Amino acid sequence: MDEAELQATLPKQRVVAAGNVRIGLVHDAGPRAGREARLAARFEDCEAIIYGHTHVPQVERFQHLWILNPGSPTERRSAPVHSMLMLRVRGSRITPELVTLSWG
Hints:
Elements: H1 4-9, E1 13-18, E2 21-26, H2 35-42, E3 48-51, E4 58-62, E5 65-69, E6 82-90, E7 93-101
Parallel strand pairs: 2-3, 3-5
Antiparallel strand pairs: 1-2, 4-5, 6-7
């Protein structure tokens, strides 16, 4: 949704450190079929991967890592609810929590 000029300045993916864990970030994780395996291969040295684009929340373990999508707090699109994620990182432990938001 961002202008092409801004998109050109942003990385396609990124890895950040939080505590003793590495978290992979990517906007578009590609088609649903095989998504988790593709992400695990793409970010093999991470303990969690956070992606967006679909607006559909996902909090799931796949092999050794968390596959996470916060959904969207603003534009629900095809998701059942507005949502966001909170991650607690303590040492090498990640605890994700999907937070459902209500407007009303």
